[in-house]
UniProtKB/TrEMBL annotation:
The keyword Nucleus applies. This is Pre-mRNA-splicing factor 18. Coiled coil: none annotated. The gene is LOC117575821. GO terms for biological process: generation of catalytic spliceosome for second transesterification step. It comes from Drosophila albomicans (Fruit fly). Belongs to the PRP18 family. It comes from the Eukaryota. Its main location: nucleus.
Length: 338
């Protein structure tokens, strides 16, 4: 009996400490006890109440903040969870635990909604955003906005000056890389100027919009190549092929340039996937499987993209600097193009 009385006294003292009962209040609700227990647990782990002034909250609703970190509003948490296809609230889960679950999802899967997208769709979005900016009078036009991309290109650079620079190619690798990046940047600038010179009515057409998308995508593709050329870190086997391609382009021999491109892209080796040693003994065809002859397009995705972007620039070069039909790849006259 004494044990029972001691337990009752302990329970009463605990309730008085939690300020649930006193001399005037002889009873309490079970929900009040649960709320007090929850508040004590949250205080132990470092959470405290947040007084929100942005939006009024219902009576009894809490918004907690951790050490120096604010919690998103409940409506925003629900919206982000629904965007990711996650349940808004699991069984027995509090709003705070739902917010923690959202944070874990955003850290582990930052691009959950963009899993089925590709770079062409991203380029399309960039073109749409640029078109919307052009519609406002206070924003710069595409021509003004793109000047910064070619700031490093000297205005005195022309096709003839690049041809003069190319006469000294083959002596110094760093010099060759500078000539190559100058030529490719010059072609990109011509392409950008062609797009910028379209009228507003032409820019609304589907054909010009697709041209702008392909240009935006190509510019993103060749950025890794430009970076390697600028820092003089391009592999020697790819540099040899690019040197040949640029020489043929400057001579307007587009068929030979296409052959050099195919040799770089898919190679002409018996084992194009990159096998460079087939045994411990030297074979008759051993010299045909060096790394220069393998398919560089199969190495990695980044290399495949800038090789594809290079082919687009080669096609544009043939369009801007035409030559005899016998030296062109898939020759199309200017009348047929229009």
């Amino acid at each position: 009996m004494d044990v029972l009385k001691a337990e009752i006294a302990r329970k009463r003292k605990l309730l008085e400490q939690k300020q649930l009962v006193d001399d005037k209040k002889k009873y309490f609700r079970r929900g009040e006890l649960n709320a007090k227990d929850t508040e004590e647990v949250l205080q132990k782990v470092g959470y405290k109440k947040q007084e929100s002034v942005e939006a009024p909250r219902a009576e009894g609703a809490y918004s907690f903040v951790a050490d120096g970190q604010n919690i998103l509003p409940r409506a925003e948490v629900i919206r982000r969870l629904r965007e990711r296809g996650e349940p808004v609230l699991l069984f027995g889960e509090t709003e705070l635990e739902a917010f923690d679950r959202l944070r874990i999802c955003e850290i582990s899967q930052p691009e959950a909604n963009r899993g089925f997208r590709n770079d062409f769709q991203e380029a399309m979005e960039q073109v749409d955003a640029a078109y919307l900016q052009e519609m406002f009078a206070n924003t710069p036009t595409a021509k003004e906005d793109k000047k910064s991309d070619f700031a490093e290109l000297d205005e005195t650079i022309s096709w003839e000056s690049i041809q003069t620079m190319a006469q000294k190619m083959g002596r110094n690798k760093d010099y060759d890389m500078d000539v190559i990046i100058t030529l490719l940047t010059f072609l990109l600038k011509l392409w950008n100027d062609q797009i910028a010179n379209y009228t507003k009515h032409e820019k609304m057409s589907t054909k010009v919009k697709m041209t702008r998308v392909i240009y935006t995508q190509t510019k993103e593709y060749v950025k890794p190549l430009f970076r390697k050329l600028k820092h003089h870190t391009l592999p020697e086997d790819i540099l040899d092929s690019l040197r040949d391609i640029c020489k043929h382009l400057l001579n307007r021999n587009y068929i030979s340039a296409s052959d050099a491109y195919l040799e770089m892209a898919i190679g002409n080796a018996p084992w194009p996937i990159g096998v460079t040693m087939v045994g411990i003994h030297a074979r008759t065809g051993r010299e045909k499987i060096f790394s220069k002859n393998v398919a560089h397009v199969m190495n990695d995705e980044t290399q495949r993209k800038y090789i594809q972007g290079l082919k687009r620039l080669m096609t544009k070069c043939q369009e801007y600097f035409p030559t005899d039909p016998s030296k062109c790849v898939e020759y199309v006259s200017k009348k047929d193009r229009e």
